[in-house]
UniProtKB/TrEMBL annotation:
Pfam families: AA_permease_2
An annotated Gene Ontology molecular function: transmembrane transporter activity
Keyword set, alphabetical order: Membrane, Transmembrane, Transmembrane helix, Transport
Protein name as catalogued: Amino acid transporter
Organism: Endocarpon pusillum
Transmembrane segments: 126-150, 170-190, 202-223, 243-264, 285-304, 332-359, 380-400, 406-430, 451-470, 482-501
Recorded topology in the membrane: Multi-pass membrane protein
InterPro entries the record matches: AA/rel_permease1 (IPR002293)
One cellular component (GO) term of this entry: membrane
Subcellular compartments: Membrane
Origin superkingdom: Eukaryota
Amino acid sequence: MTDKDVDLMTRAHQEVVDEIAAREAAEDERHKAEHYNSGGVLDRYINSVSAINFSFILQCSWEAAAVTFQFSLSNGGPASILYGSIFAGIGTTLVATSLAEMASMDPTVGAQYRWSATFAPKWNRFFGLMQGWITVFAWICSCTSNPALISNVITGLTIFNNPNYVPQRWHSTLIMWAITIFPFLGNFWFRKLLGPLEAVGAICHVVFFIVSIITLIVLAQRSTVDYVFKTLTHDVSGWTNPVVAWGLGLLTVTYPLTGFDGVLHMSDEVKKARLRVPRSMITSVVLNAVMQFAYMITVLFTIGDVEVVSADFLPIIQVYYQATGSKSATNLFIVMLGIIIFIAFFNVFASVSRLAWAFSRDNGFPFSTLFAKVHPSLKLPLNALILIGTCLVLLAIINIGSSTAFNAFISLPALALCISYFFPILFLFIRRFTSSQPIPWGPFHLGIWGPIINLGAICYIIFVLIWMPFPSILPVDGTTMNYAGPMVGAVILGALFDWCVSGRKRFQVPIVRHRPDFK
């Protein structure tokens, strides 16, 4: 290739980028004019690096897997953790790539519910409203999981350092309330905090990962190859069928990789969103999937005495303690995990508040006008932020009444988010083969690979959804019941009730902004 060819390619690429930037600038002006009287708009200030870091840190996959791998110890064991990590990494990449293609067409805060309303073969308003309720609920649950994880870390360390401490369920609720205060207040200055917060988070996410792996490899006792690659645990939880046990153990490795769509719900604040949002989503999933796999295979090879690890309130504590033999070092490593999950909490809180604001802007909620407002000086959806904070405070009360609340806080986001991913991908897949009009693709287009990737994503989501509502322990009673399925069902019934009462008249079908060619 000659220098002239390279120069022509560079100019062509720059022309595309300039065209996209000009189109988005024009759209922003129209967008501001249209929504001036409907509550205000958000400013674009998130650059390329911050957009990638936002999703990269929000997922914090290896940290989340570290503090939840007790689910796999009793179901599936190493087979679920090792092979499940590979399966989840590939499957989630297919899902993220499918959604990234839609994000390139319409990078909007509403994302899934707007795409479902756009691509649904019929009943567009119905599917848009239902999808909106499910997606908002999924993200509220995802937001709740962060303080639940941190609460578990704090409780686990307290027991580790003070064996006489007897945890009470209301203790966890108070901890969750206290933790929620920080991202709620922090979002008032999120624009100023974003740069340093993302930089610190990304550094910690990578540095702690490297330090943890090196420490475990150098100091810990080695597991056998047979244990890591050939052990399938199906005789601990009551589930004796190996396939069922393996499927239930997937929660540890599938849950941490969800939430990559968080940057989607910040789209109105991302510069050149058609290029940067898809890139952020795919980059985040690939990097986090690789890190999660590397970390979990290291833990399996350095797990030490499995019975001691399994018996601990927070098993990862015993993994580090057996490796280092030092309480101080163990405390440091577990605090590292908590710090990164805490930083990710700021991103999750910001993302879900923008999603609730966008759904209100399209009249998805009752009393939508209240939550669709943007504070004129803070430039953030303050009322939506208060709504999410209130929901988190109320959901944390579940801890007081149920000893299985933590399981619900983890399985609920995974189940609800997978449902929220499923319908827009399914509708786009159908649209590829049934539409008589060309689909106006964005700059990121999968081409002939699109249907294959969409189908793979659909199959992965269906497989994962099968296992999410299952109880992790038999026999099933009030303390071992998995409440994720019933709670998602209740939200769906509530959305149907809203549709019948006022939603069908109130909800406006959102289409791709300022794209009259997208029918």
